[in-house]
Amino acid sequence: MIYLSTVTPVYRGSEFLEKLVYEIAKVKEELEGINAPFRILESVFVDDGSIDGSDLVLEKLSKTYSWLVVITLSKNFGQHPATTAGILHSSGDWIVTLDEDLQHHPKFILTLLKEAVFTNSDVVYANPEQSVHESRFRDYSSKKFKVLISKITRNPAVVMFNSFRLMRGSIARATAAISIDQTYFDIALGWFTTRISQISFPLKDDRFINSKISGYSLVKLISHARRLVQSSELKILRIGTILGLSATIFGIIFVIFVIFIKVFYPELITAQGWASVIILVSILGGVNAFLIGLVLEHISILLMQSHGKPKFFEVNRKEDSIILKWFKLIDSK
Question: Which of 199-203, 284-288, 324-328 has the lowest mean pLDDT?
Fold first, then answer.
């Protein structure tokens, strides 16, 4: 049997938790009823220093649903640390992360898993078909920032990033295990696999639309963006190294050219000193830029190592064929 786990960080979700667990239970019962080769093994809820009585709701629900696991953090650490804590406490072959407010509906879990096995992916992100927050500025700025970081880091997966995702359990737990305070979890996922895809769903953040209250303040959003950049390999730094080397080579070639003119065509030199200035600026500036680029690239490498970027990782995808065969059988009926 293949098992799925769901992980949900909880901070201010008391009014949504009963409905969320009920919807997960429906999917769990449906899978058991149709004799699927996979089951929802557990739903891990991480109480991230909740402020609205969510802990009491979770305690009550855990008495009703034996497969509900509650993890209580000592204080509010934030969505990413809470998510990684939940992942480390999970044991499923596949893990789905869900927000507390039903923005990510459990009914899409099967579609995510189907997408994973049909595209041979280790990670599948759920992305919205339309505006999530019904706030043009927020949705547009978020999208464009991801595009910018994707280009700077040359990481095409950045534009897919979403907290609603399905991950192969072994990869998710390995990523969570090496993540430190400043590690951006989705960037770290890309250190373990490049088999990443996405699928679109009609996702809406009704809590924000109705109350205009966001779980992220401007300061948190800036910190979020900083960690995204900090966890990425800034390959744009290599451009500085290349430009510096190019300027140095240009300076050397120009020296040879000036010497040639001075020896064979001295009458062409009408002004004295300008060639020396250009040569000095080009060579010295180029050497400085080249050395600074090398230092920054080395710092970037050390930063990746401090974040725990692995040299290699083993994965077992053999059971995917069982899920794939079952989905094809269902589709043929």
Answer: 284-288
The answer, yes or no, to whether residue 25 has pLDDT greater than 70, is yes
Tell me the two tokens of residue 120.
Answer: 């041979």
CA distance 57 to 65: 12
How does 161-182 read in b/e, with b if 16+ C-beta sit within 10 Å? bbbbbbbbbbbbbbbbeebeee
Instruction: For residues 182 and 269, state if they share a domain.
Output: no
Query: Which comes out higher in pLDDT, residue 52 or 132?
Result: 52
328 and 292: one domain? Answer: no
- Which of 95, 98, 61 shows the shortest CA–CA distance to 79? 98
- pLDDT tens profile 144-199: 777 777 777 778 888 899 999 999 999 999 999 998 877 889 989 999 999 999 99
Q: What is the mean pLDDT of residues 121-145?
A: 75
Look up the domain containing 61 and give its range: 2-231+316-332
Task: Verify that 274 and 169 share a domain, yes or no.
Answer: no
Residue 153 lies in a domain: yes
Q: Does residue 311 lie in a domain region?
A: no
